[in-house]
Design brief:
heterodimer, A: 395 residues, alpha/beta, three-stranded antiparallel β-sheet, 13 helices, 14 strands, 41% helix, B: 160 residues, alpha+beta, two-stranded antiparallel sheet, 5 helices, 21% strand, extended
Chain lengths: 395, 160
């Protein structure tokens, strides 16, 4: 069933069959509408701290506009090694175990390509970021969804992993703090996952892009768990903690042979991450702790405000302790998540994202991002209250 | 906690104690008490809007006047500073380090008023040795806020 377009150009089947992101349809609805208060974004509302921009500008003025080494600037890899050691307690060799990527997206893609073969299965914890399953599929492997449940506060449970395990299972892919749920997992909660991975010889791909956006307790880096450094690909980057989404800069930390393989693909497909972004990132790690902490404090205030507000207008919302999302259930409204989001958008001009865009287990929930101004949050809550008041009462 | 409350109010003085309490995870009564305490102690001097007067009164002028003064025995610049500060056209007064002693910010309806203030009020004060007046020509940033920054950063309304 190969597809042929009007021009007669055939799109490869494995791409033509790739379902579009569930967020896409909703994005198309919102586009062109006026006066929308959006809680639908997945990025910080802050501009990148100025000293990072200033450093990047200066790098351009100094003429640092050529390629860097495939792995990325050694100074940056060194700064990342220090940062990962100091903040998360894991040591990586900047010469051989760290690769600078074009965002976590590329890092994940590279890891999938070098670790997976056709027929391999990857256990993907859902709800999750929209690209996980697609990335595994594009690498030729098979994503196997393992669901996290609202009653477990969307923390991954080892029993669902056990149930989904086959002899083809090769890896586990998870992201905590989680987009879209805001769920986090503590060291103790991650330990059984680590034991499971070790027990079955699996690799763990851990997307920790929201590591700094933790509002209670400390982030546990997966590779800091006993025995996990050797079987984890740690993916992180600058987008969320330093409000640098548009810079497209991430990094992967993994055992040398994995980084070497990833770098081989990266050197052919991307060559290197943008040089000016790498220069900015050095400044971010070395001098922007205060800016980062101020942003986290602002998110935390908005988080408390939004979660309490959502509960007061009648939406059941578990306590999100990470990232910048609340993930209330809309079950009590009698609407499913897509109806809820669509009607809320059309009738009250508030954009939230239906939970099923992040996997079937996200159904009956909507993702509300609080990385937006207090003014928008106030308006959004008022409009949502009006919307809910209008719905017929559910028993 | 009071620092976090003051930061919120410095950003937007209209935020209610109820909202402050929600944002910080404390009781509303606690927020009210801390705010009242800050008002009493003088940590909060008042509540107002940050006005960019240039939008409404394009002729209004601000001048930064560098004043060199003769310090007095035991009290230094106290008396001369307070005397200058008393004039209503004086917006703020700072004792500063460097080539002069006081920086006096004056606001007036036009530059002649500033000139008159300097010649008739400020310079004749006993202890004022010299003044150097710099008129503000354009404001780029005011009270931590950028002015006429250009395009708002454009974020997609929905993104993954």
């Amino acid at each position: 069933m190969s597809e042929t377009s009007r021009t007669g150009i055939r799109i490869a089947r494995h791409v033509a069959e790739l379902p579009p992101s569930g967020i896409r349809r909703f994005f198309d609805l919102v586009i062109g509408m006026d006066d929308v208060v959006s809680l639908g974004v997945g990025e910080p509302d802050f501009a990148t701290p100025w000293r990072i921009c200033d450093t990047a500008i200066e790098s351009l003025q100094r003429g640092l506009t050529s390629y860097t080494s495939n792995l990325g600037l050694l100074t940056l890899r060194q700064a990342i090694a220090d940062y990962v050691r100091d903040e998360f307690g894991v040591e990586y060799d900047p010469e051989a175990e760290i690769l600078i990527t074009n965002g976590v997206s590329e890092g994940l893609d590279l890891a999938a390509r070098v670790l997976l073969e056709p027929g391999d299965e990857v256990l993907v914890a859902e709800p999750c970021y929209v690209s996980y399953k697609a990335t595994v599929s594009l690498a030729g492997a098979t994503p196997v969804v393992v669901e996290t449940r609202a009653e477990d506060d969307f923390k991954l449970q080892v029993d669902v992993l056990e149930d989904a395990l086959t002899e083809r299972t090769r890896a586990v892919l998870l992201g905590y703090p989680n987009n879209p749920t805001g769920a986090v997992m503590s060291r103790d909660e991650l330990r059984p996952i680590a034991d499971f991975a070790a027990g079955h010889g699996l690799v763990v791909l851990s997307d920790e892009i929201y590591a700094h956006l933790r509002y209670a307790g400390e982030h546990c880096c997966f590779s800091s768990l006993p025995g996990m450094r050797e079987r984890t690909v740690l993916l992180n980057g600058f987008s969320k903690a330093y409000a640098m989404t548009g810079w497209r800069l991430g990094f992967a930390c993994a055992p040398a042979e994995v980084v070497d393989a990833m770098n081989r693909v990266h050197s052919y497909t991307a060559l290197c991450a943008p040089t000016m972004a790498q220069c900015g990132a050095i400044e971010a790690l070395q001098h922007c702790r205060q800016e980062r902490e101020e942003m986290v404090e602002a998110y935390d205030q908005r988080r408390r405000f939004l979660v309490r507000g959502l509960r007061e207008i009648g939406l059941d919302c578990f306590e999100p302790e990470g990232a910048f999302y609340a993930f209330p259930s809309v079950k009590a409204t009698g609407l499913d998540d897509e109806e809820f989001a669509e009607r809320l958008l059309m009738e009250e001009r508030v954009a939230v994202v239906p939970g099923r865009a992040f996997g079937a287990s996200g159904a009956q929930h909507v993702r509300c991002c609080y990385a937006t101004s207090m003014e928008h949050l106030r308006t959004a809550l008022e409009r949502m209250a009006t919307f809910l008041d209008r719905l017929p009462r559910q028993v | 906690m009071i620092e976090r409350i003051l930061k919120i109010l410095e950003e937007d003085s209209r935020v209610t104690p109820a909202e402050i309490a929600r944002r910080l995870g404390i009781e509303e009564e606690e927020a009210k008490r801390l705010i009242a305490e800050a008002e009493r102690s003088g940590a909060i001097l008042g509540y107002g809007a940050i006005v960019n007067w240039g939008k409404v009164l394009p002729d209004r002028v601000y001048a930064y006047i560098s004043v060199s003064a003769q310090p007095e025995r035991n009290i230094g610049f106290e008396q001369v500073a307070r005397r200058i500060a008393g004039f209503p056209e004086v917006h703020s007064v700072y004792l500063v380090s460097g080539t002069h002693d006081l920086t006096v910010v004056v606001e007036a309806d036009d530059f002649r008023d500033v000139a008159a203030f300097v010649a008739e009020k400020l310079a004749p004060i006993r202890g004022v040795q010299s003044t150097a007046t710099s008129f503000v020509l354009k404001i780029y940033k005011l009270e931590g806020r950028m002015i006429d920054e250009g395009d708002e950063p454009h974020r997609l309304a929905v993104s993954p």
